[in-house]
Amino acid sequence: MRAFLLLGFCLMAAPGVLFCEEQSEPVDWLVMISRLRQQMQDHPGRAETRRQLATAYNNYAVALIDKGESQLAIEQLQTALDLDEHNSDFRENLGRLYVRLAHDAYQLHQLEEALKSLNQAIALSPKIPEAYILKGDVEYQSQKLKEAKASWQQALTLQPDQSEIVKRLEQVQQEIPVESKFERLSQAYFDLRYEEQLERPIGFDIRDALLEARRTVGADFAYWPKHKLIVLIYSAESFHSMRQDTPEWVAGQFDGKIRVPLPSVDLKPLLVEKTIFHEYTHALIHDLTQGKCPRWLDEGLAEYEGRKQYSEPLHFLKDVYQKNNLIPWTELSDHIAPMMARDEVGLAYEQSWSIASYLVERYGFWRIRRLLKAIGEGESWEQVMAKEFRSKLPKLESAWREWLPQFMSGVSP
Q1: Would you say 327 and 296 are in contact if contact means Cβ atoms under 8 Å apart?
Q2: In the chain, count of helices (H) and strands (E)?
Q3: 306 CB contacts (<8 Å, ≥6 apart)?
Q4: Which residues contact 208 (CB under 8 A, 6 or more apart)?
Q5: Helix, strand, or coil here: 243?
Q6: What one-character-per-residue DSSP string does 18-82 give?
Q7: What digits encode the pLDDT tens for the residues 158-208?
Q8: In what helix (H) or strand (E) does residue 12 lie, and over which residues does it extend?
Q9: Which of 61, 156, 293, 369 could potentially form a cystine with 73 if both were Cys, beta carbons 3.0 to 4.6 Å apart?
């Protein structure tokens, strides 16, 4: 996002003496504001003094923003606008500050608060592309698909060279015809959306599976979200037709919303339960790490939780282990990508699951929680592992390889 505008400032300190901010040491803006307010009292009709005072309030606000004092900065910018209501720079600064507050609220899943701040930002300065991008994100996560589309289109109008927004628009365009007709069932922790004609399999209730995931996965991670998670429920056919770029090997998806198919003739209820636990784990990890978890660890822990419900045989790991051709830990995430072949992705998933199982068994889940917290705070996973497990990565990886035969012998053939 563009930086906040710190405006050039010159003050007539005395007859014939011009003081300019860039010619001096850093300005104490509170002192400057006090001096200018006194000058306004002494010479109430002087327009230049009023303009200088407004600029001083703006610059003081920028200094406060740099210190993280957003609410006090809002007050200063509002005062600057009261003094010079048509100043576009002041309006843009206040608008961008509201966008920043909206982003913080969005990260905390406070969607209504984020939307309120974004509407204030747009009212102040309607040409900030980031405001419309984030507004679209908030609306999308609230399942307001048509509104999200309109916001992203406005962002492209203001700033056309945004390939990521083009992709989001293409995706939401696919979703609107189907998902806008979904029925809604709201619970305390989940907001379920489903196709009206979707036939519910006898003996399977997705609500029970979700609540059990919340209880058991939450206990492992010691985290139970206070915000509602949107869960989109499809027929097996709709799940893949709706997301045409999604590889066939993807059984479910978490992209801020949990997306799962219901059991069908070709899809066992236990596989769907596994998928629900897997995707719910992604939701928790995303919150705990602010979306910074490495892909392999994210998938490994999700498999760890999902396979408690239904553990399929190992299709790839044993053979690759015997050939001494395992993927190095630092390369694992590169092998979990849509363009990869099913076998290669399958191996990466099984290996990531085995590593997660090893770390939980060897060190306990409480250390996994600390690991995720540190990653969320910006530390690299390699550094955090070395610190948390008191062993450098090569040694950790070697110990895991020695443990692997024990793991593989315990997995059902």
Answers
A1: no
A2: 17, 7
A3: 274, 275, 277, 278, 281
A4: none
A5: coil
A6: EEEGGGSSPP-HHHHHHHHHHHHHHSTT-HHHHHHHHHHHHHHHHHHHHTT-HHHHHHHHHHHHH
A7: 999 999 999 999 999 989 988 888 888 888 899 999 877 766 665 678 899
A8: strand 10-14
A9: 61
